[in-house]
Amino acid sequence: MSNYAYAIPHLIAVCWFILCWVGYSRYASWRARDTACLASVLHLYREDWMRRMLLRDNRIADANVIGNLERNASFFASSTLIILAGVLTVLGASDRAVSLLADLPFAQPVSRGVSELKLLALAVVFVYAFFTFSWCMRQYNFAAVLVGSAPMVGERNVSDQERRAFSERTARVISMAANQFNYGLRAYYFGMAVLGWFVNPWFFMVVTAGVVLILYRREFHSDVLEVMVFTQAPIAEAPKAGPGGDATP
């Protein structure tokens, strides 16, 4: 097999991977504008959270929630650095990695250069994840500052319109941080898909499509979304009048 024919499946798989990742991210952002999904529903809950926070004198619980969210992003950022260290370690011993991968079922034999290219692609995915999680941490820091600067209940020089604008602005900042966290998690999902490339490019494409299907199912049709979606309680029927004109129970 010529080098050109050997490289074609890998190029197709890489293009399919990029198309699925970028395409799904664009589609999810566009669909969330007018469709109930985890991102849009949670933003509504954050707006309710901020409006209720302005009615409380004690905001310690709210600050603790922001801190917990920031620690989650910090955990994933630290884990990403550990993963990158492991990928770079394997990259330094690529010959041994190639020999180990050759023993996998359905694994396509590859050269050392192609194996190193796959490891570099995996490293790029997790570098993106690290920067995404670190930016998420900073945005949660910004949200903590906003919570600390929230007007108190007894402040008379703050109008209701200003309080409403403040709650919407703070909820928006928290949602932006949550979106960055979501992007980082997607990078983890697609990073798992890159592992399929070490078997063969066609398996890589199948796993990538599977990741898109899982993400779509969880963001737009998950059970937890059905629970969180706000549904108006049915209006109770008016009691019927009895024979004497009194309402029956």
From TrEMBL:
Which organism is this protein's natural source? Answer: Stutzerimonas azotifigens
Record's protein name: DUF599 family protein
Transmembrane ranges, per UniProt, are 6-24, 75-94, 119-137, 188-216
Keywords from UniProt, A to Z, are: Membrane, Transmembrane, Transmembrane helix
Please, which domain of life does this record's source organism belong to? Bacteria
Looking at the Swiss-Prot or TrEMBL record, what is one Pfam family this protein matches? DUF599
